[in-house]
Amino acid sequence: METTVSYARLVRPAIDRVYVGARWGARARMEAFYAERGCTLGAENSFFSGVLARPMPAEALADGLIYTSGSMDEELEQGVVVRDTDGAWHLTDLGRELTLFAQRATGEAAEELWSSALPGVLPGLSIVPRLADLVGRVLTHAQATGGPVFRAMSPPYEPDGASPSLLLVTRLGSLRHHRADAHRAAWRAAGLTADEIRALPDGPERAAVEADTDRRDEPAYAVLTEAERWELLAGLAALPN
Q: Going along 52-192, which residue ranges are E strands?
């Protein structure tokens, strides 16, 4: 029986809340930009921190889309991506224009969200550079333990002159995939399929998968001291969304 909760499990909801909040804050402007070019948001938008840096291997994309239909037909039809002879996915010129905008819009939305003053604390933006640095160190350390999607998403694409807000959301976007890879590895090791893990109710089997996920995800944070780990968790929790 578990007597402690892993840090990886504690920090994940904070990572998700901050990242998803910024993404939703940017969604309307991304949809408008895409619509002007006759396109809809696709996989390139979700994986912007990785696909702007390098082609996405077929295995990584298949894992990244494993809880969906996995179809890339729409992205291909719209001319956003192409596939090479090895099966890797590349952005076209149009795809890169769209994806760069998605990254920029997400960073702008984050800065707008975080620029409000926090009660009893310094303004939100003052803690962002430090959080970006901590997450950057975790990403570098996690190269040794990340799975296929994390390796495709890290190191992330970081444009010259990027604001701390853009750096933080981009790095969080990549870091989320370390745990996602860990979770897929855990339920596969338990002999489950994607459909089975999605339908699996709370209980001993689900708890075992989650504990194995924690075990596989935890090494990413070993580069931080205990004080830094709590600083990261508290800082992310303090950011408004």
A: 81-83, 89-91
